[in-house]
Specification:
Length: 434
């Protein structure tokens, strides 16, 4: 919706006719298959890349920290420019460019390792390049998906993508560990490079539904276009409300993630095997949540579904700091808390992405998505740092309790934000109160 006519309805999304299910829509299926393969490859890299630094290059803790920081830092720095660029040109070629670039970056690591010339500086360069191209792909993808399908199918479509993401997180580390054991860490990264190529080929085979890109004479300056995306985020009530909730949750999540594994192993006495089973079980529940989210959202409405989801996130992780007892009891209670929290996270993510895709006009989707992503990437390192400091100063249980209470603030905020009243995307076009 244009900023100078904020109360006007967003333009209709160009899409295929609604009668066909998603399974019969070739463009969507190619995008989903390609992204699923890419997510699986990236899940392997999450384990293989740090192992390459540790086992082959003997990286120090500081170097490992920098390796993670340059990825998110590059994504944040490049994010706003990526969003503006994705709104200027056709998004499908941009996604293909991002996939090809990421494949090239990742492919240099095993090549350098084979010639015994790999250095930690190359890993920094690769992770920075991949982080920047991740931002480009993400911004283009957020605008491209709604052009492939009907507006009413966005919840179902995003459910499938979220299910793929959770499944990759569950299965990826185990498969990655086996692959590293078999072919060594640098060569395991070839799988990620190949997965980006598969994604690029799938996108290449999609029939592009977008109109021609605007000419140079029709464009504002890049900085003005970036500013338009930021102003939309701050001016549109629902998008602004989403950002508030997401900031709270992305502050709490790194506090939790930074300490929960230490808590499970040191305080609860869970072995690595039991801890792995915990995350597999929670991930399986997340996949289940992605399957039923469309039904939940249709019954409750999108706003209430997100409210219930934030309550599940808070309630599930609020249980964890109070888990005690023998290992079997601790294992069961921890699994319940992590599973409920993961399911809530999946339901909220699907609905929030769908709402943003349906609400933001096509010409701003890349910039709005990038603006939110940059804010989130800026909050997450702060949360991780706070979690580390709190864990050292006050202990693991109080730190996890503080994270759960921040989740609780996010849950309570839903009752005071206009998000709670949203039922369907089509109602937003006529409900001026939203």
């Amino acid at each position: 919706m244009p900023l100078d006519t904020e109360n006007s309805p967003p333009p209709a999304i160009t899409a295929q006719p609604p009668p066909h299910s998603l399974w019969r829509q070739g463009g969507f299926m190619k995008l989903w298959i390609g992204e699923t393969v890419s997510l699986a490859g990236s899940a392997v890299t999450e384990l293989a890349l740090p192992l390459t630094a540790i086992l082959l290059l003997h990286a120090s803790p500081l170097q490992l920290g920098l390796l993670l920081a340059v990825n998110s830092g590059a994504a944040a720095v490049f994010g706003l420019f990526a969003g503006a660029w994705s709104d200027r040109v056709r998004r499908r070629p941009l996604m293909m460019l991002a996939d090809g670039g990421r494949a090239l970056f990742m492919g240099t690591i095993p090549i350098a390792a084979a010639f015994h010339i790999l250095r930690i500086e190359e890993l920094y360069l690769v992770t920075a390049g991949v982080g920047a191209l991740d931002s480009l792909f993400s911004a283009a993808y957020q605008g491209f998906l709604p052009s492939l399908i009907h507006r009413d199918q966005l919840v179902s479509a995003n459910s499938r993508f979220e299910g793929s993401r959770v499944l990759a997180q569950v299965l990826g580390p185990g498969f990655g560990g086996a692959l590293v054991q078999l072919v060594t860490a640098p060569f395991a990264l070839l799988l990620d490079a190949l997965s980006f190529l598969v994604s690029g080929v799938c996108i290449w085979r999609i029939r592009d539904p977008q109109p021609a890109a605007t000419t140079a004479s029709e464009r504002a300056s890049l900085w003005r276009e970036i500013g338009a995306g930021l102003r939309f985020v701050l001016a549109q009530p629902l998008v602004r409300s989403l950002l508030v909730t997401m900031v709270l949750f992305n502050l709490a999540a790194p506090i939790l993630n930074a300490q929960v594994i230490l808590f499970a192993t040191r305080e609860l006495g869970l072995s690595p095997l039991l801890l792995g089973l915990e995350f597999v079980g929670a991930g399986a529940c997340g996949v289940l949540a992605s399957i039923v989210t469309s039904v939940i959202s249709a019954r409750l409405g999108m706003g209430r579904a997100m409210t219930v989801a934030t309550g599940m996130i808070c309630g599930g992780w609020l249980l964890v700091p109070f888990v005690r007892g023998p290992v079997p009891v601790a294992f069961a209670l921890f699994l319940v808390g992590a599973s409920v929290g993961t399911m809530g996270d999946v339901i909220f993510n699907i609905n929030s992405v769908t709402l943003r895709q349906g609400l933001v006009p096509d010409r701003l989707r890349g910039r709005v998505s990038a603006s939110i992503r940059v804010v989130i990437l800026g909050v997450q390192p702060l949360g991780a740092l706070v979690g580390g400091v709190l864990g050292e100063q006050i202990g693991l249980r109080p730190t996890l309790l503080i994270a759960a209470l921040i989740f609780g603030v996010g849950f309570l905020s839903m009752f005071f934000l206009p998000l709670h009243r949203v039922r369907r995307l089509d109602a937003l076009e006529t409900d001026s109160s939203l």
